[in-house]
Amino acid sequence: MNGPSSSVPAEPSVRDLRPGDRFPDLALPDGDGHPRTLSELAGGDPLLLHTYRGWWCPKERAFLRTLTGWQGELEVAYTRLVSVSVDPPAVVAAFRAGLDARWPFLSDADRTALPRLGLLEVEDTVHTPYLPTLWLLRPDLIVHRWWNGYWYWGRPTLPELHVELRALGADLRPDWDPPRPDAR
Known about the structure:
Layout: E1 27-29, E2 35-37, H1 38-42, E3 47-51, H2 58-76, E4 80-85, H3 89-99, E5 105-107, H4 114-117, E6 133-137, E7 143-148, H5 158-172
Parallel strand pairs: 3-4, 4-5
Antiparallel strand pairs: 1-2, 3-6, 6-7
């Protein structure tokens, strides 16, 4: 007699998320070992969530230098950025400092979130790192758009990000169009 299966179905991968779906509110340690959640780090603003292979990958260093050059614009535009890897907290802290990055870098060194998210890069069996992705999330962690950065050219350019952030900003900000002088 066949009874119900006792196996628990696996959670769907976040790679299956579409615009309008909610990204999980991860809780991971920052470079100082303090647990931080994505919702806390979003702080009511749009969030760019970047998962990366690790400090050792030249593609990641190149992309992170690009983001570092843009961090001032993100800050004045009320947009948050968070980067996540499997590097230990001390390594993400040193990497962040070496890049002159001002945004939080989180560590999933224990790989607690990685299997749940389904973002394992399966080709790298040495480091078992994150698949490089970039997620544009609304303040409530609802997916606006995401990019697969497995190949470097799959990552968005800054002009592409600007267009997506403009569209999200217009949708989120009730005061996107400034008040008219005759409205007083």
